[in-house]
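The authors assume throughout that readers already know how a fold can be written as discrete tokens. A single example would do more here than another paragraph of explanation. An entry of this sort, consisting of the sequence and the corresponding backbone structure tokens, reads as follows:
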Amino acid sequence: MDSSTLTWPHRNTMPFLPSSLISFPTMKLLYQTHSPYARKALVFAHEAGLASRIEVMHHETSPTKRNEQVFAENPLGKVPVLLRPGLSPIFDSDVICAYLDTLHDGRKLIPVNGEARWQALRVQAVAQGLADAGIAVRWETVRRPEALRHSLLRDGYIEKMTASYDWLERELDVDDAVHVGHIAVATALSWIEFRELPDFREKRPRLSAWLDEFQGRPSMCATPLSGETQD
């Protein structure tokens, strides 16, 4: 499908919204059901209590499959892109999350200052790098024509993934209140399992237990991964 509104389970189970919230203009999120980056933005919206203000629009994108509607909003031709009524579009997932965190009055998911802020942002950075490395591994294993695959490059990216798994096992603040880094890690790791990329669970019980618990959150249950990349 090229561009259609997704129907998520939460749309049928959302609690009653006060009229003050219903009056907000609807934003649109250009999305992909198998993108860890797009899912991160949408999970963040759920955690921030903003999902009801966002219409989710599915768009298939790939470096080899140009999507004109996405390119019209983002010169990189990638999702997620947040479309705001009367304002310029916002991309990528990091920037979308930062913007969404300004729209609610609850506890900020990106801590404002102190070491809590830098911890959340560095965890987010590791998670984003994990997803980037995972995509690179997929190019060198299943997406690039076999004759053009580079095994040494694949192995180099796998090393980055393994080192990141070990760092998260040591450094992830599993007992702290949910922040943007947690969301980024959960959506990256769940995507890694979805794509059957190098395993992170063996010898990492702390990280694995945390992910299993996080995946039970309503924000994760409402945004399941599905579909295949269309190159």
